[in-house]
Amino acid sequence: MMKVEYATMSETGRRRNNEDAFRVVDRKEDNRWLAVVCDGMGGHAMGEVASETVADAIVTYWNSHTHEPDSEDKVEKACRTAHAALNVWSSSMRHVEMGTTMVMVSAEEDWATIAHVGDSRCYLMRREEGLLHQTKDHIRLDFGWEIVDRCFFSYRPEASVPDVVRFQLKTGDRLLLCSDGLYKSMSPEILQARMMDENPLADILDVYGFLCEKRGDDNYTAVLMEVK
Question: pTM of the full predicted structure?
Answer without folding.
Answer: 0.96
